[in-house]
Structure prediction request, 222 residues.
Amino acid sequence: MSNELTLEVQSRSDVGKGASRRLRREGARVPAIIYGAGKDPQQISIELRHIVKALENESFYNQIIDLVVDGATEPVILRDLQRHPSKGVPMHADFLRVDASQALTLTIGITLINEEECEGVRLENGLLTRNLTDVEISCLPKDIPETLELDVAKLKIGESLHLSDIVLPEGVEIPVLQHGEEYDQPVVSVIEQREEEPETADDAEATEAAEGEAEEESSDEE
Prediction:
């Protein structure tokens, strides 16, 4: 797991839609909530510029975050983020408390390695295509990986690598694989590139005829 992220927040008692609007408009802060781990939900707010900066780090979405709430540290993960539909500005965040003894379910990105060495592309002029970019995993908080790696060096044309081909770090599982082989989705494939067929004389004549008809119809309308 990567280094934990830290974010300063403040507790708040003024709740409701009106209070949230005032918080965003007057205080340039984002309302949020912390819940889980058998504790009461806690309403908080985050300075807008701080959460915008934090969101630039992709790890913010799937790593443990240390929220410093009025001087006390609360380890959490981001469960939901609402954005303004047109501006994209964060509007509300939900954080789930982390219990070190309980497994978490979260989505982690899949990183392809050795793409330049892929045999199907390098030797067979194939095209590498992605079917999945991330997957849901389950693990204890201490075992959260930054990413899952899949080596495509030996992949040839017509072949695919599936979720089951990912070498998982110790303590990490992909829950969907427990439901059977039919859930073992392809992650990446190498397909044959189709070459465009050269235009024949008949094709050229047909194109010219169609263009001529279109010009005549346009002249008639005028």
The chain has a mean pLDDT of 87. Residues 176 and 183 are 6 Å apart (CA to CA). The chain has two domains: 5-97, 104-192. Helices lie at 17-27, 48-54, 119-122, 201-221.
